C-alpha cells in the first residue's frame, strides 16, 4: 500500500473512531450549526498559519479552540438566537478564510482543503491526528457520564452539583479539536458530515447511549474505508467519497427494522 494512502486510511480511521461518541452528543444536543461554524473557521486558521509561517495544523487547532470559547461566551450574552448567530458566523468565517487566502502570495490546493485530499496527508499530519484523537478519547472517557447528565437535563445536573458550564465548554473544545484535525481528511465543507451522519444512522438501532456511540464509530470506520477505497480505485475526491459512503450507510439503516 502506498504510504500516502496508508497515512490517509490510518488518519481517517482514528478520526472516525473518536467522531462516533462526539457525533452522538452533536445529534443529541442539536449542535450541527456549531460544528458547521467551526469547520468553516478552519480555513481561516489555515490562512493565518501560512501568513504567520507556523504549522497550519497548529494554527487551525488554536483558532478553532479560541472560536469555541468565544461562541460559548456569545451564546450566553447576545440577544440573537443561537442558530441565527451561528448561521451568520459560519459563512462569515468561510468568507474571511477565502479572502485571506487570496491575499497571500502562497499557492495552495484550495479544493483539497475544501473537500479533502489523499495526497495532503503527510507523516506529520498523521501524527497530529493520531495524537489528537487519542487525547480526545482519554478526555472523553471520564467526561462521558457527566456529559450525558447535562444532555438529559441540565437543570437537574446543576442541582446535583455538576459543573454544567465547564462540561459544556469541555464538549465544545473536544468537538473543535476533532474538526481541526479532520480538515485534510474530509475537507472544510464536509467535516460535520463525519460527525452527524454515522451518529444519526446508529441512533435508529441503539437502545443505550453507549450502543449509539459505538455504532456511530463502527459506521464511521466503514464509511472512511469505503470512501477511501472509492477514491483510490475510481479517482474520486476523498472527502466527498467518505460522505457519500456514510450517507449510503444511513439509507441502509432505514432498510433494517428499527429496534425499540
What's the layout of helices and strands?
Blueprint: H1 3-28, H2 32-52, H3 56-77, H4 82-103, H5 110-115, H6 123-152, H7 154-159, H8 164-181, H9 183-186, H10 191-203, H11 209-234, H12 238-255
Task: Sum this structure up briefly.
The chain has 260 residues and is mainly α.
The CATH superfamily is known as ABC transporter involved in vitamin B12 uptake, BtuC
- Overall 3D shape: globular
Strand and helix order: HHHHHHHHHHHH
Number of H- or I-type helical stretches: 12
The stretches of 5 or more residues where confidence is low (pLDDT under 50) are: none
- Give the second-level CATH assignment, the architecture: Orthogonal Bundle
Residues in β-strands, percent = under 5%
How many domains, as an integer?
1
Largest sheet: none
Strand runs, count: 0
Radius of gyration: 18 Å
Class in CATH? Mainly Alpha
What is the typical, i.e. mean, pLDDT?
A: 85
**Pairing-aware structural class of the strands and helices?**
mainly alpha
